[in-house]
Amino acid sequence: MLHVFVSDGGTVRWARGADTGPEPLPDGAVWLDLLNPTPDEVARTEALLGLRLPTREQLAEIEESSRLRQVSGALHATVPALVWTDTDTPRLAPVAFVLAGRRLVTLHHIDPQAFLTLRRRASRSGLPDADAASVLGLLIDGILERTATVLRRTAADLDLLGRDAFRRTGPAADAGAMLKRLGQAGHLFAKAHESLSALERLLDLLARGEAPVGKKTRRWARGARMDAFGLDEYAHFLSGKVKLLLDTSLGQIGAQQTEIIKIVSVLSVALFPPTLVASIYGMNFPDFPGEHEVWGYPLALLTMVLSAVVPLTVFRWRGWL
After folding, report:
1. What percentage of the chain has pLDDT greater than the value 70?
2. What's the pTM?
């Protein structure tokens, strides 16, 4: 899907009708957003830019030289953005930014929330005093804001988990559910770190003036770089908190298992003497002592009870129970 936004008196607006059709894209296009595009849409965009757009395989590259490069005076950057953060399976969606002169092209196959929000804003009221570089800044700010929201929300969940972890006295099944939630949180923080690290490198490139942008964009990039660095440090701190809670939960599970093993061991020792007595008196011999006496059966029962009570009393006296 291709979304075309053009400059209308300094305000970037959605060019209705320019998204579809075989006609060339308008020369006044400022932002071209390609969401899972067709080959025809890619060809139309490349014809307007005079540049080749990255393929899906190139978006998946992890080498720094592939993610950040300049080709024919145009900046090519690929940034993994957090998506599906409201589900149990958050993931990173690679987003390509191509800043070529007065045009910005974004290429992605999964739509991050920041892109959807900015497209809606541009479609309804427009983006005043915007150019390609400022649209790039708005998109990156949106990604940072979305990441910050996700980190704050997950941090609040961790606080609740931490409170339950240090007060919980329930069964091991509760600990298993907590381990699952902690694992999901750690998975999310790892992905947030990867996304923020890539954004830091892009913003550092813009702030140093090594990309074709103006002073206003470089000044904005310096502030955004600090925001990305702060969020990355926060994600690292939350990862440490996840490790602490994981250690706590695993320690509690180990303690519960040790307690269960202790109880089973004590019961095994306590039940061994009665079992021995019952086995002896259950032997099939014709002349067993006390077999024909009235007191034989009660004595056997009393012996079994005493042989169980005495070890349990000793265990309790020694503090093992």
Report:
1. 89
2. 0.76
- Domains, the chain, with CATH or none: 2-254 (3.30.460.20), 259-317 (no CATH)
Q: Give the model confidence (pLDDT) of 27-42 as tens digits.
A: 788 888 888 888 888 8
Q: What beta strand segments (E) does 225-306 contain?
A: none
Tell which residue, 263, 266, 260, has the closest CA to residue 311. Answer: 266
Q: φ, ψ for residue 93 (rounded to 5)?
A: -110, 120
Q: What are the CB-based long-range contacts (under 8 Å, 24+) for 249-252? A: 249/165, 249/175, 249/178, 249/179, 249/182, 250/179, 252/165, 252/168, 252/175
Task: Name residues whose C-beta falls within 8 Å of residue 60's C-beta, 6 or more positions apart in sequence.
Answer: 94
d(CA 304, CA 276): 8
Q: Residues of 201-211 as b/e, b for ≥16 C-beta within 10 angstroms?
A: bbbbbbbeeeb
Is 191 in contact with 107 (CB distance < 8 Å)?
A: no
Question: pLDDT higher for 283 or 151?
Answer: 151
Distances in Å between the alpha carbon of 46 and those of 18, 39, 57, 63, 294?
Answer: 15, 10, 17, 24, 106
Query: What are the angstrom distances between the C-alpha of 297 and each of 91, 270, 274, 294?
Result: 72, 21, 14, 7
DSSP letter (8 states) at residue 109: S
d(CA 286, CA 270): 30
CA dist 1 and 19 (Å) reads 8
